[in-house]
Amino acid sequence: MAKKLPSPCIDVCKFRREGHCIGCSMTKAQKKMFKTLKKPEHREAFVTMLLHQQNDLGKYRHWTPAYLKKCAKKGVTPPVAA
User: Fold this and answer.
1) What InterPro entries would the database entry show (predicted)?
2) Residue 30 belongs to some domain of the structure
3) Structural domain range at position 42
4) In this predicted model, what pLDDT tens digit does every residue of 46-58 receive, in sequence order?
C-alpha cells in the first residue's frame, strides 16, 4: 500500500490573509476537506490546486521547502510541482 501524501499544513495556522493561513494558504474549510480525502490521487490533486492558489495569492515561497521536508520525513514523493 502506498504511503499517504501528508497534509499541506506546515503548523503555522494563522488565518490573516482574508481567511487564508499565512503558512500554507489553506482556508479552514480546505483544511477540513483535506482530512476527508482518502485516495492518493485526490490528495495529490488537492496539493496541486493549493500550489496554484499560493501562486495566485503570492508570498508563500517558504511553504515549498517546509512541505518537501515534511514529505521526505514521511518517505513520500510529493507532486511534481511542489
Assistant:
1) DUF1289 (IPR010710)
2) no
3) 38-77
4) 999 999 999 999 8
